[in-house]
Write a structure and sequence with these properties.
- The protein is α+β, with helices and mostly antiparallel strands.
- The chain has one domain: START domain (Alpha-D-Glucose-1,6-Bisphosphate, Chain A, domain 4).
- β6 and β7 form a beta hairpin.
- The protein is globular.
Length: 154
């Protein structure tokens, strides 16, 4: 993987299966406004946040309890010159055991500093992964955007 792609890592006292189940419960940690499937190979889902961001993801790799890869097939940002900046990038969740814990390495392959959205998007991914997904894995309750587009706060 390219070292400039956005990546962040979680280490949790849960099983790889619990981590995998939380990751594929996208409504539970990213947004309640997810339409479509997000757990099986070739599933597609759409995400939107107000009129600011919308995208379509296709699951192109699913290895239960080990790996999930989304391909961004459509994208819209209201705040960038290139509204379609993420198209063709991949969002990767690598799940493994490390020191009797489960490690999740999240990488947005193609989200690089050259992108206009890099700072905003990497900050948002950091919060969704480090706070919301972490909370969903460890407590069973995440902090996704609500149906009204508001962010939940811990």
């Amino acid at each position: 993987m390219h070292s400039h792609d956005f990546t962040t890592t979680l280490l949790v006292d849960k099983t790889p299966a619990e981590a995998f189940n939380a990751i594929t419960n996208v409504r539970g940690w990213w947004s309640e406004e997810i339409d479509g499937g997000a757990a099986k190979l070739n599933d597609e889902f759409t995400y939107h946040y107000r009129d600011i961001h919308g995208c379509t993801m296709k699951l192109i790799e699913v290895e239960p309890n080990q790996k999930v890869v989304w391909l961004v097939t459509e994208n819209y940002f209201s705040f960038t010159k290139d509204k379609r900046e993420w198209i063709g990038t991949k969002i990767i969740f690598d799940i493994s055991l490390k020191d009797n814990k489960t490690q999740i390495i999240f990488t947005h392959l193609g989200l690089v500093p050259e992108y206009e959205c890099f700072d905003i998007c990497s900050n948002a991914w950091g919060q969704y992964i480090q706070q919301s997904l972490y909370s969903l894995i460890t407590t069973g309750v995440g902090l996704p955007n609500t149906k009204g587009g508001e962010l939940k706060v811990a």
